[in-house]
Design a protein that fits this description.
It is built from seven helices and seven strands. α1 links the parallel β1 and β2. About 35% of the residues lie in helices and about 15% in strands. The chain is of the alpha/beta class. α5 runs parallel beside α7. It has a seven-stranded mixed beta sheet, with helices on both faces. The longest helix has 18 residues.
């Protein structure tokens, strides 16, 4: 029987975070014992021991489903891959750096009773002032152009009903524009303030140089795309 909930996590050189995050997710679902779950852990071409850690987890717990990408393809590719392989009716994403808190999943799940998607926002962000400032500016510019109504597009804590996956396009940077894509498709979106924790292990994969210029480039493309988006609805019984 397919699980009710799928938790998708991209990992890139996060060997030290694999076991703690898996334990936290399991603890959440021990309190949600009426919800079956699976973890889709996507190894984005890691060069450390992430693959070994994921495979060892899967041997002990069949609810852990590792996916290994042949090469490092980026966070968007890892997330979209996981979402497409997931079997649950409700899908949740978390970053693999332990800064997102799996304990937010139950409250976000409640909001999926009335919405297609729920986007977390980091109300008390535990990052450097440079990252907080750059994120604040980026979110303001994105919202001014795309009008997606989301205050924190970079937050990894998100939840979806399964049908949302069909409206997400696989391009580099796609994960920052999930709300814009779903708004264009007519999906309803809620926001929820999530817990944000300081990074304790590993190193951040993002900086100003690899986010600013590419983000501007992506913003132009997504702005064009959302204005050209077509919603196709067939009459009942037609294929």
């Amino acid at each position: 029987m397919d699980p009710r909930i799928s938790v998708i996590v991209p990992f890139y050189n996060e060997e030290s975070n694999v076991l703690p995050l898996a334990a936290e997710i399991r603890a959440v679902f021990e309190r949600l014992d009426d919800h079956s779950f699976e973890c889709i852990f996507v190894n984005d071409g890691s060069s450390d021991g992430t693959r070994r850690a994921l495979d060892a987890l899967a041997e002990r717990d069949p609810r852990i489903r590792p996916i290994h990408l042949r090469q490092n393809s980026g966070q968007s590719a890892a997330i979209i891959t996981g979402l497409r392989r997931a079997r649950g009716a409700f899908l949740f994403t978390l970053d693999g750096d332990l800064q997102n808190d799996p304990a937010d999943i139950p409250a976000m799940l409640e909001r999926l009773d009335t919405h297609d998607c729920v986007c977390g926002y980091r109300a008390n962000r535990r990052d450097t002032w440079v990252r907080r400032l750059s994120s604040k500016v980026a979110n303001a510019v994105r919202n001014a152009i795309l009008h997606d109504g989301i205050r924190d597009a970079g937050c990894g804590s998100k939840g979806f009903r399964r049908h949302c996956v069909h409206h997400l396009m696989p391009f580099n940077g796609s994960h920052r524009f999930i709300a814009a894509q779903l708004r264009a498709a007519g999906m309803s979106i809620a926001e929820y303030p999530v817990n944000h924790r300081p990074r304790e292990h590993g190193q951040s994969k993002y900086g100003i140089n690899n986010r600013l210029w590419r983000g501007i480039y992506d913003l132009i493309g997504v702005g064009w795309l959302t204005r050209r988006y077509v919603i196709i609805e067939a009459e009942p019984g037609e294929e």
